[in-house]
Write a structure and sequence with these properties.
The protein is of the alpha/beta class. The chain is built from eight helices and ten strands. A hairpin with a 6-residue loop joins strand 9 and strand 10. The chain is globular.
Amino acid sequence: MLEVQHLSKTYGSGEAAVRVVDDLTFTVKEGEFVCIVGPSGCGKTTLLKMISGLMPATSGEASFDGELIAGVPETLALVFQEYTRSLLPWLTVSENIALPIKKKHKREDCERLTREALHAVGLDSFSDHYPWQLSGGMQQRVAIARALAYHPKVLLMDEPFASVDAQTRSDLEDLMLGLRAQFGITVVLVTHDIDESVYLADRVVVLGPSPTRVVEIVDINLPQPRDQITTKELHEFANLRGHVMRLIKQRVDSRNGAATLS
């Protein structure tokens, strides 16, 4: 579904040039849930912008569903960390969800798709509310519903749960696992949380310090379905979590001596 080949990004030119992403290669299969983790400032968001078509690469290429990415693909949706910025406060929940599909569908189809998306994220009774009347977790559910209503082939998520409390974060993680199972959607999620990446993913792409490269792609062979207690009590979960953390820490320490993990 998504193929990244030797992707690199350099900001600036000449002596002021800074290479952020260096020769990244990986693939994402159809229906797969892939998480991308790495040290703080390693270029995870830059990578996501390039594979979404929001930012051109300096070299290398990315292809989506067999086509080279030269702009944002029509069947791709994004969910960002800052839900307060992505939702329009003067529109109701339903109006926010319908916004990207209004030009593609008739009115009755938009209403149906909006209702279905609201139901999928458990917000049926909040269609006429405004974003500022909702909690942070509910607002992010609206952002996810808006992406689902678009019926994308791939959903890209940039640290989507970083701005909510721990309990809400757990609820949203489980929501994403349920939606993935329900819709069979392909998900690529950037996160700074190692536990979250191991809990959610089929595979974790581990990046090194900037200029970032792929350190290792870790297969997450944990039983499905997963839940916050049983899964995280598994010995295999602890081993995978420790392995991913060591991969990041070793690269950061070898580069900077000591650093804070992302």
